[in-house]
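Q: Got a minute? One more chain.
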Amino acid sequence: MDLYFATSNRHKVDEASQILGFRIKQINLEIDEIQALRVHEVAVEKAKAAYSMLHKPVIVEDTGLYINALGGFPGALVRWLVDAAGTESLCRLADASSDRSAYAETCVCYADDKGTAVFSGRVDGNVTEKPRGKNNFGWDTVFMPKGFSKTFGEMTAKEKNKISHRMLAFTAFKKHIEQLHGSI
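A: Always. Here it is, folded:
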């Protein structure tokens, strides 16, 4: 089965392929992205649009960082915030409260001729006081998962992929695909 991942981000494709244990095909489609706080909403709309353009099984992924003291902001808007104000802006936002708790969530949405299916993964943790680490993918350098002393940015890809929100979402997706098509 050919499976396409609609994203312009090669890093996401590589990480997903490592988690799934097989290569997926990257396709860069011009998809208008709705602006919403919840990654679930964004992923579903992007998957529907991608399938209508491609007419082949396709996945999209959206990830957000939800700062609890800010009612979940920036959520799915985190990419735009980091692009505009830098990763440090997340630390400054968390400085506004004594509660630095946050969670990272990924939604993978699969679309085919039968419709869509969503798979989520969530990791609780905290926003650090300043960025830490060299593995800078998005906001990895400012998110420290609960029970760990390293940020995602300080972890190796292998360490991160064992516990990440993306791993949880793609593992759930892999089980679904294996049920539909057998082992891939």
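A: The helical segments are 10-20, 39-54, 78-85, 88-94, 157-163, 165-181.
Q: Perfect, thanks.
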